[in-house]
């Protein structure tokens, strides 16, 4: 890897992280020395990159920085296109449209016209006949609730066929083959529950906030999931 490639790689590494990353971590990731990372970071700062931090503490890229022009390796472009096409088969129409728009923006923002390469990556997600997810408009409402940390009023039909009214705080959505699972704190049961999107009979976004930040709830949900999986059947 020459220096120009390494400078771009360092910018990519900083862009992926929200917390400071040390020169030692960058050096290990890039396969070079800490001293080289120090020099490269100073070079980037001299070129105008908004990097905060110092040696021994760590470096972080300030929010809002955009590095033109958009350059993608063949593998990066293939991953983006495959991911967008997979999203398009998951029943979340708003998210599918957003993925398609994002790919179009990437194509036009690149210094090379990528539309031909995007149309012919040769990679498509396999959706078995009969397993494609039907449209679920409620998924957009669930995502809005998660972004704004606002409770959802829900009527849900259980496996027995009995319906209950609940208030939930959604924390994650799992897009599975042919269905979607919503992980949420259920105020009725005072515990985390998993709800199938196709069994939700009614859903309404309320003005009531979550009882805890979603990030805190997500950590607690993951820990509860790990405990459940480690418990012998």
* Cα shape: globular
Structural class: alpha+beta
Query: What level of helicity do the residues show?
Result: 40-55%
> Number of helix segments?
8
Distance between the termini: 50 Å
Give the strand order, joined by hyphens, for the main sheet: 6-5-4-3-7
**What percent of residues are in strands?**
15-25%
Cα radius of gyration in angstroms: 22 Å
H and E string: HHHEEHHHHEEEEEH
Uncertain parts = none
Task: State the major sheet.
Answer: 5 strands, antiparallel
Count of individual beta strands? 7
Mean pLDDT: 85
Write structural notes for this entry.
- By secondary structure, the chain is an alpha+beta fold.
- It is built from eight helices and seven strands; from the N terminus they run H-H-H-E-E-H-H-H-H-E-E-E-E-E-H.
- A five-stranded antiparallel β-sheet has the order 6-5-4-3-7. A two-stranded antiparallel sheet has the order 1-2.
- Strand 1 and strand 2 (58-61) form a beta hairpin.
- Helix 1 packs across helix 3.
- The longest helix is centred in the middle third of the chain and has 17 residues, at 93-109.
- It is globular.
- The termini are far apart.
- The relative contact order is 0.09.
- The mean pLDDT is 85.
């Amino acid at each position: 890897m020459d220096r120009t490639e390494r400078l771009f790689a360092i910018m990519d590494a900083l862009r992926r992280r929200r917390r400071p990353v040390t020169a030692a971590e960058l050096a290990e990731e890039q396969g070079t020395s800490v001293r080289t990372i120090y020099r490269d970071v100073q070079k980037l700062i001299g070129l105008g990159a908004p990097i905060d931090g110092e040696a021994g503490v760590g470096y972080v890229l300030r929010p809002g920085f955009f590095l033109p022009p958009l350059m993608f390796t063949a593998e990066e472009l293939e991953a983006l296109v495959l991911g967008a096409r997979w999203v398009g088969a998951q029943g979340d129409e708003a998210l599918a449209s957003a993925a398609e728009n994002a790919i179009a923006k990437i194509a036009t923002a690149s210094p090379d016209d990528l539309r031909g390469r995007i149309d012919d990556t040769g990679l498509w997600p396999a959706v078995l006949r009969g397993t494609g997810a039907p449209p679920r408009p409620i998924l957009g409402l669930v995502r809005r609730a998660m972004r704004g940390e606002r409770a959802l009023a829900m009527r849900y039909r259980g496996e027995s066929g009995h319906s209950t009214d609940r208030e939930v705080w959604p924390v994650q959505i799992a897009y599975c083959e042919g269905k979607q699972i919503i992980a949420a704190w259920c105020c009725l049961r005072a515990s985390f529950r998993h709800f199938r999107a196709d069994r939700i009979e009614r859903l309404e976004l309320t003005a009531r906030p979550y009882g805890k930040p979603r990030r805190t709830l997500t950590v607690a949900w993951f820990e509860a999931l790990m405990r459940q999986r480690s418990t012998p059947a």
